[in-house]
Write a structure and sequence with these properties.
Layout (H helix, E strand, L loop, with lengths): L5 H20 L30 H13 L9 E6 L10 E6 L3 H6 L19
């Protein structure tokens, strides 16, 4: 059982494939790490590109990237499921984004979303 119809999965998969094409065309490199990580084009031997988590070069690039990225959340309050569409990743890489009318009201009485896979209260990876 999946939370999406076949048509919705095809749309998600199609979007992911278009994003992959765009990332390849723009020479965006994705790396594994717990924080946004940049692949150094110059100065690749500096500690920040090899073993430290932070550095002036990363901060400079992060600031530039932040100005270019954008995200628009749905305007209708609710629970929105997101999932990684890379083959096999959906098993562990998914979550629920909550859109609320009032952050103050939510903070005063928070609700826990339902995990779409287990149908139990969602448990965040951050404990």
């Amino acid at each position: 059982m999946t939370p999406y119809s076949q048509a919705q999965w095809r749309a998600i998969d199609g979007l992911a494939r278009r994003v992959d094409v765009d990332l390849t065309a723009l020479d965006v490199r994705l790396t594994q790490g717990g924080e946004p990580t940049f692949v150094a084009m110059a100065g690749g031997s500096a500690p920040e590109w090899n073993y430290t988590a932070d550095g002036s070069g990363k901060r400079r690039l992060a600031a530039r990237l932040l100005r270019r990225l954008g995200f628009s959340a749905p305007s209708t309050p609710g629970e929105y499921i997101f999932v990684c569409t890379f083959p096999g990743h959906w098993v562990r890489m998914y979550g629920v984004m909550l859109v609320v009318e009032s952050l103050e009201a939510f903070d005063a009485k928070p609700t826990v979303p339902i995990d779409p896979m287990t149908k139990q209260p969602f448990v965040s990876g951050k404990q």
